[in-house]
Amino acid sequence: MITHRNVSRALALALAATLFAACDKNTVQELPFEPLTGTQVKFFNFGVNAPGVNFYADQQKMTAVQSGTGTEATTGVAYGGVGNGNSYSQLAGGAHTLTGRIAATTDKDLAVATVNATVAAGKFYSLYMSGFYNTTTKTVDAFVVEDPIGPPADYSVAYVRFVNTISNVTHPLVLYAKYTTGDTTQVVTLSAGVAYQAVSAFSTLPAGVYNMSARYQDSTANKFSRTGVSFLAGHYYTVGARGDITITSTTATNRPFLDNTTSW
Description:
By secondary structure, this protein is mainly β. It has 1 helix and 17 strands. It starts with a helix and ends with a strand.
């Protein structure tokens, strides 16, 4: 005879077996990576002395900063900042005019940086305002690079690349990482010489904390450095050189600086 008690017990056993099987099957979680329906773009304001901006794709505003009152702030993405809290913004693939426009009340929405770019659906890109802001013409350089990121082939290492947004370098820059644990004398070369507005391929690096430095490709002396930079396994990072190469102060806002941004 089938009783209510027997049915309840059978259901409980079946549920337990299902849960156990699910846990066993997903010991290592498999995430879906379907193709993106659009292009993903990230926006950086690395233009020395540039005003805070909102970024646009054609006439569509892609980034903005909210004020404490819930309205749009007039600060925009300030120098050294990344739009949308370091998140990518989705954009339809194709040809676009990408601009950085003044966020302040004075000269509101004046385009100070313009890049005409054709982007492909399903790919990632970054736009960098770079070089020095010209207060006479109210313009600053800008360029776009592709971010060839996706599910890592090896989750035991970090992926690191180097982009150079410093316009007054006299030679291409090379990026180095020095171990802070274990053999602290070991230095890893992460890029070849990277010229202004160029970007290196991704290199792999064991997860950990490193002291980073940038040198001219024909020199053994550091031009500038940054200590205590963390890299997590399975993540993509872009280390960006920004600032004025002639500044020797270690505290000036426009000093040469190594920015570390997670891409994935």
